[in-house]
Amino acid sequence: MNRLKDKVAIVTGASSGIGRATAELFAQEGAKVVVAARREAELAKLVANIVAEGGEAVAHAGDVQSEDFAKALVALAVNRFGRLDIAFNNAGILGERGPSTGISKQGWDETISTNLTSAFLGAKHQIPQILRNGGGSIIFTSTFVGYSFGFPGAAAYAASKSGLIGLTQALAAEFGPQGLRVNSIMPGAIETPMYYASCETPEQLAWLANLHALKRIAQPEEVARSVLYLASDDSSFVSGTSFLIDGGASITRT
Fold first, then answer.
1. What strand order describes the sheet that includes 180-187?
2. Exposure winner among 8, 96, 135, 172, fewest CB in 10 A?
3. In total, how many domains does the chain have?
């Protein structure tokens, strides 16, 4: 407990799934949390839950594709809590799926903008504030799709999430001398709304679970614990990595 005591963190995509579980865990570990997503009502429930358990949190609803929104989140963290130490840039979408030759330019652009450009914009404005405190931790949510697995019909999603791996490495090298650590996570299948949106039948759900060595999918809380590790001083010499949290999917052929 208290691995994030006196730290201030931003968590995007916090209204459900991995983001919500991570925001709750960060608060339990002592962080003051700024939670962001598009769904204002869900964020209000999350803040109420965190406060009810003795934590501190504030919400701001908006679109992560907006650079003004990225600026506003940093300003909210500083104005409300006085600093910024950690950012978990987690917001993302599956985007338009289907044969790559049929994906629309609009669908491609929206997926890249939501999953990759938004993470860059977030980091762009988070980094100067984090560096004022002598450094901290930024974490992105990538995926095993486009890294250890190629799924037909997921070109935009795979490309956007793979781009985060390159962004992770570039930022880690650029700002490491100033004490900033930058890492990304690559989850396998997680029981989230996005997971259910990716499969249309029970057979597809079972097939996806069977890809993993553990023969199951993960709960968001399991991923949140890995994010906590990367956010905390437990990972003080870890930077520039893309961290598989895939239940052994990348090594399984059964």
1. 56-61, 32-37, 8-12, 86-89, 136-141, 180-187, 242-245
2. 135
3. 1
